[in-house]
Amino acid sequence: MCALKITRSILWQLSNYTLLQAQTTTQTIANSIRFYYTVKRKVAKDENYLSKHLYDKIRIKGPITVAEYMKVVLQNPMQGYYMSKDMFGEKGDFVTSPEITQIFGEMLAVWFLNEWQKIGCPKPLQIIELGPGRGTLSSDIVNVFSHFKALHNASLHLVEISPVLSDIQAGTLCLQSSLNNNKNALVYRHGISRHGIPVSWYKQLKDVPEGFTLLLAHEFFDALPIHKFHKTYAGYKEVLIDIDNSEEKEYKFRYVLAKNDTPMLKVLLKSNETRDHVEISADSLLIYEQICQRLASSGGIALICDYGHNGTGTDTFRAFKKHTQVNPLVKPGTADLTADVDFSLIRDIANKTNDVLVFGPAKQKNFLQRIGIEHRVKALAENMEDKKDVEHLNSCYKFLTEESKMGERFKFVALMPATMKKIIDKYPVVGFV
Ligand SMILES: C[S@@+](CC[C@H](N)C(=O)[O-])C[C@H]1O[C@@H](n2cnc3c(N)ncnc32)[C@H](O)[C@@H]1O
Q1: What is the Cα–Cα distance from 216 to 208, expressed in whole angstroms?
Q2: Could you point out which of 108, 153, 276, 311 has its C-alpha 20 to 30 Å from the C-alpha of 213?
Q3: Is the CB of 105 inside a 6 Å radius of any atom of ligand 1?
């Protein structure tokens, strides 16, 4: 059976199940947003906490890199943007594809099932998600896997730095979970999913045990710190962040250029670089390398979805607050900081050893349509009785696939071990051709 036929057959088998799920969803959600859980943890809020912290840091050690600024703003244990609140949905700062409709997660599950079946469904199976947000995508994927009885000897591994989000993920995925009292343990929380598989939480990917893996990273890499470089008459310089003393205002920051070559400029910038602005995430490079090593040594399939470019992007560092783009240097910690992902760097890392094959980037619109989202939406709509549900379904579909919405900017890249080449030559990876 050709790969696409397998996908269609999986989709067909899924249709009854998804109808039930979709009806519940469309009845209970408003404006495409799902709210599963309310955060109980309260963190004392001081809007100036991070500004003061950064101000003191820069006063003592001088201008800092954009990566260091992002790390403090997003990951500071006390009040980092990701550490202390739920930022998703209509009332938050942004919305992501899995939060718009469960069809997104289900299509990705179908894709994984299809590719996994092609290689004979190796077990035990580890499903890893990097940066799982509210846990919605993992939940939708595990639901589909359970429908196909694919969860025997399977486990879910979540890499998440945010204590607040890990609470929410546990609420989404598990009936019960508990925090590990041993602060040095690699697994800081564990639980059993509603479908009975073990779920473990880690701070970093390298802590997840080796094993055959289906790995997913959706809007994860865009949240990792980047270094910024700017082309000047005197060659490239790293962009730094300094205190701005030009006004009397407290805690103002500004961009400056490093006078000398910084270590990261020497390490990260390619000698043949020509763009005026270049952004490189050293943290992402490390994780791409870890993913490639994991796939090469233990086998598996990885799917990375994010907004980004193929080595052509320039000045993309920005901030979002309440669904509006704002200045990243104003009120740090109150807005999400993000930068487009450079997918060409994934290929560069994979090509270093030739142990891993890279597919894509493919536009979200093309990827979802090639894996059959239209068939699914049509099948669901045909079984819906309420016109409003059909309208809602269609608007979600358009939001995910229209080029002016999420269809063009969001892209998919898949990684597979080079040992799978023969199978892939015979049954090409669905979604990329
Ligand atoms: C933009 S959200 C995306 C959430 C989810 N994947 C989605 O698409 O709805 C980024 C996620 O990555 C997590 N995160 C950010 N930096 C991280 C890091 N260095 N290590 C682990 N998780 C991180 C955040 O806490 C959050 O769960």
Answers
A1: 14
A2: 311
A3: no
Q: Which two tokens stand for residue 52?
A: 């003061």
How far is residue 279's CA from residue 410's CA, in Å, rounded to a whole number? Answer: 18
Q: What is the pLDDT of residues 394-429, one digit of tens each?
A: 999 999 999 999 999 999 999 999 999 999 999 999
Q: Could you report how far apart the first and last alpha carbons of the chain are, in Å?
A: 17
Report which ligand 1 atom has the smallest distance to the Cα of 162: 25
3-state secondary structure at position 177: strand
Q: Output the CA 135–ligand 1 centroid distance in Å.
A: 10
Give the sign of the dihedral formed by CA 314, CA 315, CA 319, CA 322: negative
- Which of 37, 82, 167 to mutate to test ligand 1, by most ligand atoms within 8 A of the CB atom? 82
**Domain limits of the chain?**
3-42+97-222+281-426
Greatest mean pLDDT range, 17-31, 140-154, 240-254: 140-154
Any ligand 1 atom below 6 A from CB of 159: yes
Q: How far apart are the CA of 131 and the centre of ligand 1, in A?
A: 3
CB atoms within 10 A of CB 21: 18
Q: Please check whether residue 431 is in contact with residue 370, taking contact to mean a CB–CB distance below 8 angstroms.
A: yes
Assess whether the previous peptide bond of 77 is cis (omega < 30° from 0).
Answer: no
AA letter at 328: P
**What is the domain class of 3-42+97-222+281-426 according to CATH?**
alpha beta
Give the side-chain half-sphere CA count within 13 A for 352.
13
Ligand 1 pocket residue status of 218, Cβ below 6 Å: yes
- 3-state class (DSSP) for residue 224: coil
Q: What is the pLDDT of residue 33?
A: 26
378-392 pLDDT per residue, tens: 999 999 999 999 999
H helices present in 131-280, as ranges: 136-147, 163-173, 263-268
- Distances from the Cα of 426 to the Cαs of 114, 163, 430, in angstroms? 14, 44, 12
Q: Which of 45-54, 69-78, 153-162, 421-430 is the least confident region?
A: 45-54
Q: Which of 290, 228, 214 shows the shortest CA–CA distance to 256?
A: 228
| pLDDT over 70 (residue 30) | no
Atom number, ligand 1, closest to the C-alpha of residue 88: 9
**133 CA to centre of ligand 1 in angstroms:** 5
